[in-house]
């Protein structure tokens, strides 16, 4: 098993950043040809999703929709830090994704990429990639 740690600096309150290449490099370094990669965020206001990579408007639309469903300003939020919306968005997206590795490559659909989702930035974040042979 192989564990890799990554640092990522986000520059907006909400953003989705492609991190697929970082994971591909980890898979290559590990030498694993068949297995899984688990990508995990140890943050309660940032997570991961797999989504379309061809049209940047998809990311824009997703972030706008998340904000519509979980707006930053709500009169009923009680969390003192003022980032309840970010916790809810992260709960919906999830803190991790699991990817299949076959022949040393991530098994993705043609339009898919892995995105780190920041919902409470800008911040310096850490995430982990655990590669398991099998």
UniProtKB/TrEMBL annotation:
Q: What InterPro entries does its record include?
A: UPF0047_YjbQ-like (IPR001602), YjbQ-like_sf (IPR035917)
Which PANTHER family did the record assign? Answer: UNCHARACTERIZED PROTEIN YJBQ-RELATED, UPF0047 PROTEIN C4A8.02C
Q: Which family does it belong to?
A: Belongs to the UPF0047 family.
Q: Which Gene3D superfamilies match?
A: YjbQ-like
Identify the domain of life: Bacteria
Q: Which organism is it from?
A: Coprococcus comes
Q: Per its UniProt record, what Pfam families does this chain match?
A: YjbQ
Protein name from the UniProt record: YjbQ family protein
